Amino acid sequence: MEIEQLLIQSLQLLGLGMGAVFIILTLLIGLISIVSKLVPEEVGSVAAAPTVKPAVNNDHIAAITSAVHQYRRRR
Questions:
Q1: Over the stretch 3-46, which tens digit does the pLDDT of each residue have?
Q2: Which one of 55, 56, 67, 73 is most buried, by most CB atoms within 10 A?
Q3: Domain that includes residue 33, residue range
Q4: Is 64 part of any domain?
């Protein structure tokens, strides 16, 4: 095969691949738009999760602090 034939074949393959991706993405955008219009958005039906303040455990803090000090002393 000559270089011109290979270049033409590669450009055809490039066009086919990019065209396929473009068509699939266009169809996907269209499908998402249709579904978003068909399915109504629920407003206010989802309650906000209550914020929970984590409990501070002084024993855990003391153990972590002790482990950090021991690690730094060994280095």
A1: 999 999 999 999 999 999 999 999 999 999 999 999 887 776 55
A2: 67
A3: 1-39
A4: no
Distance CA 61, CA 69 (A): 12
State which amino acid sits at residue 59: D
pLDDT attached to residue 48: 64
The total of structural domains in the chain comes to 1
- The angle subtended at Cα 49 by Cα 47 and Cα 54, nearest 5°, is 165
Q: How far apart are CA 73 and CA 1, in angstroms?
A: 71
Residue 1 within any structural domain of the chain: yes
* The token pair that represents 26 in the structure block: 């266009």
